[in-house]
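ok so for the tutorial part 2 we go from a plain amino acid sequence to predicted structure tokens. step 1 is just haveing the sequence, like this:
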Amino acid sequence: MKTSSSYREILEEKLRAEEFDEEIFNSVTFRQGDGLATIKSQFNPDEKPTDYWTITHYKCANIHNVPTKERWRHSEASVKVTTSDKSKDQTLNTSLNETMQVIFDVILKDPERRTIRNKLAA
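step 2 — the prediction. this is what the tokens look like for a chain of 122 residues:
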């Protein structure tokens, strides 16, 4: 019997089991005045996702003195979306992959970059 799991393990199990919560997938949440606004798109459980993307944008000035675990409350925008192999998702999938490639290119071309390797606790 498993007594505790990391968030990463729970998410892996959930994605593998394909038990998706419509509340967290295919949504855009952004800060509006003193509250948050969330736009959700219908999730079709018949379409098996191949990728799950989550992108969060922060203004550094807004999180300067905020503890790391509380920073999510101060994000400017957060996007959570699943994509499948269906043709309707391919434009989005391609765009997200291209964006990631640009980010990696910028990071890897930085002459002052550091590579840090951590061992995962078993």
